[in-house]
Amino acid sequence: MVPQDDTESPPKPAVVLPRRRPPRPRAAVLVLHGGQETSDSPTSPRQLAALRMDPILRAVTAALPHEDVLVARVRYRLRGWNGTRADAGRDTLRALDDLDASVDFVPTVLLGHSMGGRAALHAAGHPQVTGILALAPWWPSDEPVVQTAGRRIVALHGARDRVTSPTDTADCVHRAQGAAARAGMAVIGGGDHAMLRRHRLWHRTTAAVVAHLLDPDAVPDPLPEECYGTGSFPVL
Questions:
Q1: What is the end-to-end Cα distance of the chain in Å, rounded?
Q2: N or C: which end of the chain has fewer CB within 10 A?
Q3: What percentage of residues in the chain have a pLDDT greater than 70?
């Protein structure tokens, strides 16, 4: 979680911040950072949850399967999910609408960490979304999955995560297997919520999975087939 600022200013609208913007993108990756369960404080590019995604963003960009893939991060209006308001989820849907308006339809992969994983799952039903990779996601046991129909869903969760639950993530993936085109999970052995322990494996696996989700026919899946089974998920 990120400490609240002592002083608050009115929240700005959610924005899409391109890192790589080709003139005619064939696909897109939207990166969604974490946040807090409850907070009306405005987000900042200097908050730890946002900075944590910088090395992930660099790794994903370097491993893109094509030059004409747009890569951008979403900056939410507020730091909190805030119950049924689902502010980060709503901001993600707005960001997808803005992307659609600026570059027409492009298949889009959502890459989210912690609360960003919940925002990605919330927005999975958007017409542009074709795949989701959630890192140490915050997926409560009652989180709906019907919106994943036709999408490819992958989760990576650290075995030593003490902030969000690998068990809840596994349960959500198993439930999504009844709706999604494909849903799977891998456990990062020794991995923590901040993705600092075994960070090279986090970065390498994330980049490879995103590349596969962007072009599943041409780019092999880096995860073993057991990751898509109905039993316990494998440890990497």
A1: 26
A2: N
A3: 94
